[in-house]
Specification:
Chain lengths: 181, 92
């Protein structure tokens, strides 16, 4: 019991243990609620909701009417849960930095590559996230929704996506890190 | 009821991601630098466990699969390629 308790307070688990936990969650998602784990869809649902309220004409298209209907969907609920789950994970390992100095930019490696400015991190994160969401919209899912959830149902789409993701990811880091690769 | 289940599932989803270190920038980027394979180990373990579990359950007739993500080769590949750029930039 003590062993488990101590393990819960470890900051980084063995990826195998965490992977088994996620695998079980994936099984339960299909078994209990007949749905897949997705993260990026929730943002599109919320964006659709806001967009329909602000510019209904612009958002009155095929994509937002049929493929990603706006509203508080299962995905949004899942994302809220994931937020608190991640928070608890950070709290148990003592890395929850709510309101502390450097909380918004605490990654040493990031600072070494791009510099210590917080605004830079936020800007790059914002731009990167736009690219991410756009690509997730094209592919039909993100790492969790397509690669993991699709992969566990052996969907060919998932493996195509993983191949594309790693190819582009490796090339992009090569460009960013150059000789520090 | 489904809402509560989904919320709980999301909770453990976030928890496992956090504990695997996938909420950290350097973990995500280092897998692309091929210096830290934690992301791959995590993803593939999850895949293997849930694949085995789900196909066993389906064999026993306990679950029906939801519709799988649609396959359209060009879309999936190009989406994946653009996604990789964003992922390496953000560390998502």
């Amino acid at each position: 019991m003590k062993l488990i308790w101590n393990y819960l307070h470890k900051e980084i688990w063995s990826p195998y243990v965490a992977g088994i936990l996620l695998g079980i969650v994936g099984i339960l998602a299909v078994w209990l609620s007949n749905s897949l784990l997705g993260a990026s869809g929730a943002f599109e649902n919320l964006a659709g909701l806001i967009g329909k309220a602000i510019a209904p004409k612009l958002f009155d298209n095929l994509y937002f009417n049929f493929i990603m209907p706006p509203g508080i969907t299962n995905n949004v609920v899942l994302l809220i849960g994931a937020f608190f789950g991640g928070m608890l994970g950070a709290a148990t390992s003592g890395t929850l930095k709510w309101g502390k100095k450097d909380a918004a930019n605490s990654d040493q490696q990031w600072k070494r590559i791009f510099g210590p400015q917080t605004w830079k991190r936020w800007l790059l994160g914002f731009i990167g996230a736009i690219i991410l969401e756009y690509a997730a919209g094209i592919a039909g899912g993100c790492t969790s929704g397509l690669a993991i959830s699709g992969g566990m149902l052996l969907a060919p789409a998932a493996f195509l996506f993983i191949a594309g993701m790693f190819t582009a990811g490796i090339i992009t880091t090569l460009v960013i890190y150059r000789n520090r690769f | 009821m489904t809402t509560i289940i989904t919320l709980l599932l999301g909770f453990f989803f976030g928890f496992s991601l956090n504990k695997a270190g996938l909420t950290k920038y350097h973990k995500i980027v280092n897998v692309f630098r091929l210096t830290d394979m934690a992301v791959l180990q995590f993803m593939l373990t999850a895949l293997v466990v849930s694949m085995a579990g789900l196909y066993t359950l389906r064999g026993l007739g306990l679950v029906t699969f939801p519709s799988v993500p649609a396959t359209y080769i060009v879309g999936n590949l190009i989406g994946g390629l653009i996604f990789g750029v964003g992922m390496a930039l953000t560390g998502y």
